[in-house]
Design a protein that fits this description.
The protein is an all-alpha fold. 53% of the residues lie in helices and 0% in strands. The protein folds into two domains: 1-151, Serine Threonine Protein Phosphatase 5, Tetratricopeptide repeat, CATH 1.25.40.20; 152-234, no CATH class. The longest helix is centred in the C-terminal third of the chain and has 30 residues, at 204-233. The protein is globular, with a radius of gyration of 20 Å. 29% of the residues are buried. Mean pLDDT is 79; it is low at 13-19 and 229-234.
Length: 234
């Protein structure tokens, strides 16, 4: 997590050097400093005074404060921040992407606490507001959170597989709807098998993943066969 924060800070310096500077007020800068130092209590204290800041651009990459809160690896903090928002604001926050259209779930794959994803998925069935911001593309408005893709065409599940986050991958897969195989292929037909090999997550990674998916579909198939057999016997 520290390495991720360090990488983000270095990238911000590069962008600033190129002259693409976003200006933040002192309150946001204080919250940024709190996040970088891992002082999440202060981070929350600053932002709860003006909850609109939770869904506004928080850094140079278009992340909101909610995106940044995923780096805390603290489900309690994430839940409290989301509950500070109205249902309409929360609906948008769950689907809002950063500069590469990574949503909260795309960012949560780096967390080691699986309940971080659980917090987000808990709210996904809330009804869509009557007025939806144009910031949320049409294709992201009616699909489950696990099916939303980023600019690379990757679902959160695909990204977790690509980066070798096996535990989070398993957790998210249990909450996916329908045929989850479609969530492991990008729009350019690039599959998680290609991604895992290029990312050097082969060997144990692939064997565990293939085993997991095989068992999942075996059980699903058996369940359907039993259901059909039951109706035939009747």
């Amino acid at each position: 997590m520290k390495a991720l924060l360090h990488g983000t800070m270095e990238k911000e310096k590069e962008i600033m050097a190129e002259g693409e500077v976003l200006k933040f007020d002192e309150t946001t800068i204080s919250a940024q400093r709190a996040a970088r130092s891992g002082n999440w209590r202060m981070f929350k204290k600053i932002l709860e005074k003006d909850t609109k800041r939770l869904v506004e651009p928080f850094d140079l990459f278009g992340n909101t404060a909610i995106h940044i809160a995923t780096r805390s690896n603290n489900p309690g903090l994430l839940r409290e921040l989301l509950e500070m928002l109205s249902e309409k604001e929360r609906w948008h926050a769950l689907r809002k992407g950063n500069c590469v259209n990574n949503t909260l779930l795309h960012e949560i794959i780096f967390c080691t606490t699986m309940e971080m994803a659980g917090v987000v998925l808990k709210f996904q069935n809330e009804a869509a507001p009557e007025e939806i911001s144009e910031e949320i593309p049409e294709e992201k408005r009616r699909v489950p959170l696990l099916e939303i893709v980023n600019d690379s065409g990757e679902t959160p599940l695909f990204r977790a597989a690509k980066l070798g986050r096996l535990k989070m991958l398993k957790y998210m897969a249990k909450h996916a709807e329908g045929d989850i195989r479609r969530l492991f292929v990008r729009f350019d037909k690039y599959s998680i098998l290609h991604a895992s090999i290029l990312g050097q997550f082969f060997g144990t990674y692939i064997s565990h993943f293939v085993f997991y998916v095989s068992i999942y579909y075996s059980l699903l198939t058996m369940k359907r066969i039993k259901k059909n057999t039951f109706f035939i016997r009747q």
